[in-house]
Every structure is written in C-alpha cells, then in structure tokens.
Amino acid sequence: MKSLIVTLTVNPAIERTVTVDRLVFEDRGYILSQAEQPGGRGLSAARVIHSFGGKVTAVVTSGGGVGEQIEDMLTGLGFKSRVVKIRNQNRTNFTISDRQGLTVKLNELGPPIEREELEALRRVIAEVLEKSAWLMICGSLPPGVDPYFYARLIEMCHSAGVQTLVDTDGDPLLHALEAKPTAIAPNQHEAERLLSRALITRSQTMEALQRLHGMGPNTVLLSLGSRGAIATNGEEQIEAVPPRVEALCPIGAGDALSAAYVWARRKGKNFSDALRWGVAAGTASAALPGITFADLAQTKAVYKGVQVRPLR
Predict the structure, then answer these.
(1) Strand 13-20 vs strand 31-39: parallel, antiparallel, or unpaired?
(2) How many angstroms separate the CA atoms of 108 and 246, rounded?
(3) Pairing of strands 183-184, 219-223
(4) Alpha-carbon Rg of the chain, whole angstroms?
(5) pLDDT for 187-209, tens place per residue?
(6) Cβ within 8 Å of residue 235, ≥6 positions away
(7) How sure is the predictor about 2, in pLDDT bands with cuts at 50, 70 and 90?
(8) Is there a smaller number of Cβ atoms within 10 Å at the N or the C end of the chain?
(9) Is 75 helix (H, G, I), strand (E, B) or coil?
C-alpha cells in the first residue's frame, strides 16, 4: 500500500514572526522576540505530518535569494523535499502577535511563474504521485497563474488513484471543486468568500456545509476556529468541539487541522476520529506562541478533550 503523503506549496514564503508585548492602535508596543521559518500551507502541513511520524515529501518552488533561504531552512526540518526552480523571487510574509493572542498577518502576493516553470512543477508532481497515497494541495497561487492549475492536478490524481485534500481560497478553490477532490478544508472566512454570504448563525453554517459538499468534494472540513470544526462526507455530518484553551497565535491552526486529518486517514482511522485528530492538532497549535505547530504528544493531550458528535 502506498504510504507517502505529498504536500504542494506553489507559493512558499519566509515567515517572519514578531512577538510583542501588546498590539494597540495609536500607541507603541515593544518587540519581545523575532523568528524566521519557511512558510506556506503545504510546508506547514509537512512539518505537522513529519512530527507525527508520517512519511511526507514537500514539493515547493524556489526563486531568488528568498528561495535559497527557504531551501537552506528545509534541510534542517527532517523530511524530504522536491524543489522546482523559478526565475522570480519567492515572497516574504509577516506575522505580529502579542501576549494576549491578538495577531496581524501580512502576506506578499508572490512572484509570477512562467508557463515552462509550471510545467516542470507538474512533471515533478506526476513523478512523486507514483508512490503517494495523498496529495495535499495547499495555499495560494501567485498572480497570473492559471486558476485551473489545481483542478488539473486533481484530475491527474484521479488517474493515479491518489486522494486529494485542497486547502486554498478564491478562484483556485472554486475551480478545484469542479474536479471533485477527496476533501476540502476551508475556514469560515474562505467559505464565506466562496459562497458570497456571511455565516453568522449555526443554521447558516450548517447550510454552508451542505452547499459546499454539493459543489463536488467527497468530504468537507469546515474549520470554525476556537469552536472546532464541522464536517460531512455525504453519509455522516459531525462536529468536533475542542476543550477551551488560551490561544496565543491562531495562525496556522487550520494547516495543522488539515495535516492531522490526512495523517489520521492515512493511518486507517475513520472519518470522525480523523476529524477529532485534526481539531486537536489545530487547537494545540493555536495555544503555542508564534507560528508554531503542536507535535504528536501535545496533540494527544488535547485530543482527549475533543468531543465529536452528530451535527444537529
């Protein structure tokens, strides 16, 4: 049986995280610490899966000095990566968090990618799919990249017998749905943008789950932040409610949820238990400072307190 999980990050970044004593308007805050790490949803997912003991390969683009820095950082993370060189420089993102859990995230759009570079990326993905059980298609596409790019990769996975999870936003998500991925994992804001409506009440959120499922994916995991997640695979509709924790930085919690869900499914866990693992990983990661991801032991501690029940 294929055991490899592949994550794709077309638009990686250097993540610069600044922790301050407080974030307030029209007054100063003081920097307490700073850190840099390779970022992008696919790389975040790969880090979580690797820390859980899963077999993972991260496929990324690399361009310019920032790309070289990303490659250098990847060598110390412990999992395999496949790098596709591009002409233009990768982006740099900024996150500012305070000790009360308030977070501001500022992302660059990312570099243009030439057609031949995208074709090289497609060839690398086709190669790694031969040993893959899952392809996680994560994060944004840079400006100018065909919004159907992800949809074509999903069609490739169908032919290869590889399951897919899509964690993106906007037009790339809309068109990916047309290709019927195995799973999608939008957060509430992404679902609201896709459906062009606010999700305020519980009934609106439940209706949104059904509408998303009707757009093509086999499974929908709708992340609701501190409220956990609701999900459906067409047969079951469930919610996973986490224990209350003090959230220090929620950025990346959705990446942890998606990664832990795929890891759990690959381990043979059923739908509801996989969602429980996902919510546990997202909750445990949100309770850590900066953009930090909970390991298996930290996730297990939260997993015990996650309640999974039918959605009503």
Answers:
(1) antiparallel
(2) 29
(3) parallel
(4) 18
(5) 999 999 999 999 999 999 999 99
(6) none
(7) confident
(8) N
(9) coil
Number of other CB atoms surrounding residue 38 within 10 Å = 26
* Fold exhibited by the domain 10-310: UDP-N-acetylmuramoyl-L-alanine:D-glutamate ligase (3.40.1190)
For the four alpha carbons of 116, 120, 92 and 152, in that order, the dihedral sign comes to positive
In sequence order, which residues have a C-beta less than 8 Å from that of residue 60 and are 6 or more positions away? 9, 12, 40, 42, 43, 70, 74, 81, 82, 83, 84
**What's the predicted TM-score (pTM) here?**
0.94
Identify the sign of the CA torsion 245, 277, 238, 5. Answer: positive
Q: Specify the amino acid at residue 18.
A: V
CA atoms within 13 A on the CB side of 71: 15
What does the pLDDT look like over 97-115, one tens digit per residue?
Answer: 888 778 889 999 999 999 9
